[in-house]
Amino acid sequence: MPESTFDIFSGASKTDAIWLEGVAGLSNARERMEQIAAEKPGQYFVFCVATSTIVIQIHTFKNTEVMSKTRSAA
Question: Where are the chain's structural domains?
């Protein structure tokens, strides 16, 4: 059975979300989102295609310190 697909977005989910890429597997999606956020600080989230929910959010600043990170039960 193939892994679930997750979409990575930049921006806020309800106002200015921009799709960046799709990734197979939640741990891969989290790792990729964190890589993107380290390269270009900002607000990002991972969206589960199967359940239509945001499963991880991250907000980084210029010094790339993670200020807030949430994960909902999947």
Answer: 5-71
Q: Where are the alpha helices (DSSP H) in 1-74?
A: 26-39
Q: Looking at residues 38-57, what average pLDDT do you find? A: 94
What is the pLDDT at residue 71?
59
Closest CA to 29 of 1, 2, 4: 4
Phi, psi of 29 (to 5 degrees): -65, -40
Task: Answer for the pair 45, 54: CB distance below 8 angstroms, yes or no.
Answer: yes
Separation CA 44–CA 64 (nearest Å): 13
Nearest to 47 by CA among 12, 9, 15, 11: 9
pLDDT of 46 over the 70 cut: yes
